[in-house]
């Protein structure tokens, strides 16, 4: 399904006078502080976040799954759902696939369908954390780190196949996240596991097209509960460094132990040009994967403050990071959830663009933490929602994406088309 553009326009027209008033007011306030609202709106229009195919269905927990109905049952439906998100938000211009959950039957037709929704294919993701019905060897005791060379070979070949699919679709990067690790002390030889993983990744790296990047994602625990082979950013960076120039670390917000200073990790990785990708979500306890900004919007802002700093730093050769939402849970309508995540990401981005970096640097050099905090919080406490709305309006999206989604009964229409019972592939 696609939303009739005219209907979005009609809703926008109704809300326009109020929006104009708040946008003009904010532009005046920001203008007096030396910020150019127009330039910020342009940056917001450019900022696109990939939506992963596995977030479009209701997420389950190990205790149950409660589908809301109208879920996408095919890759085509998933593309259509991201298309809807993009129509409303104008910020979700890419989809990230997980193979083998999303194998395209007809690559050309899939590419054309995505393009017709204004979408490109972002990083492709391999899956060696589950066994597939037709596979020869099991990943129960690991994949790229496995003690048995044949298992490692199977996992490497799977990644090479994922690259092939991605290449055909126009993706330019592969994200590798491994569940490899151990659940009991003594189970795994840490050094051998690292070395085997490195060798396997080297084979995968060698199999990438010359213009591709490899993102190495880390995670401290789960599904293994004693050790994870790529447990943290240091391990991920060591691997990326040994692999070569086109290998990078990938930071997933949920993949840290409580209270980790993620903004410092971001700053450090960007300083050495090794932050390749970023997975957004939020959490209270672990890898909760709840809506971005639902719990810790200030932390998200502090992270964006470093991301913007890294992106604007002329001495850094860090590539433009690949942004992706990696959130999915079991209560909200997944499309509303993703619209909220997109909004939270862009709010934090816009606020970070309002940090007076020259003044902040001066405060730091003068050892003035109180002033540094004032500067950061002045940006954080600015209500930047009119800037986001203006960016959407100019791009012909919805002034109020969730409002439009509800008023246009999108979920009801999806349920009519797809039924109540379709279960989307994913976790
Ligand atoms: C693992 O927890 C993860 O964050 C990785 O990015 C996976 O690819 C994704 O979730 C989906 O399983
Ligand atoms: Mn992730
Ligand atoms: Mn995760």
Give the helix/strand layout.
Layout: H1 5-32, H2 37-46, E1 50-52, H3 75-89, E2 94-96, H4 107-116, E3 120-121, E4 124-125, H5 149-169, E5 173-176, E6 181-182, H6 190-206, E7 213-217, E8 227-228, H7 233-243, E9 247-252, H8 262-271, E10 275-280, H9 297-312, E11 322-325, H10 334-353, H11 357-365, H12 369-380, H13 385-394, H14 401-407, H15 410-418
Parallel strand pairs: 1-2, 2-3, 4-5, 5-7, 7-9, 9-10, 10-11
Antiparallel strand pairs: 6-8
Helix pairs in contact: 1-13, 2-13, 3-10, 5-6, 8-9, 9-10, 11-12
The structure holds alpha-D-psicofuranose and manganese (II) ion (2 copies).
How would you portray this structure in words?
With 427 residues, the protein is of the alpha/beta class. It has a single domain (48-355), classed as TIM Barrel (Alpha-Beta Barrel). The protein is 48% helix and 9% strand. The protein has 15 helices and 11 strands. It has a 6-stranded parallel sheet with strand order 4-5-7-9-10-11. Strands 1-2-3 form a 3-stranded parallel sheet, with helices on one face. The radius of gyration is 22 Å and the shape is globular. Bound molecules: alpha-D-psicofuranose and manganese (II) ion (2 copies). Alpha-D-psicofuranose binds at residues 54, 125, 177, 217, 219, 252, 279, 287, 326, 427. One manganese (II) ion (MN) binds at residues 177, 217, 252, 279, 326.
In whole angstroms, how far apart are the ends?
24 Å
At the first level of CATH, the class is Alpha Beta
Main structural class:
alpha/beta
Q: What's the pLDDT, averaged over the residues?
A: 97
Order of helices and strands: HHEHEHEEHEEHEEHEHEHEHHHHHH
DSSP helical segment count:
15
CATH topology name? TIM Barrel
Strand order of the largest sheet: 4-5-7-9-10-11
The biggest beta sheet reads: 6 strands, parallel
How many distinct beta strands? Answer: 11
What compounds sit in this structure? alpha-D-psicofuranose, manganese (II) ion
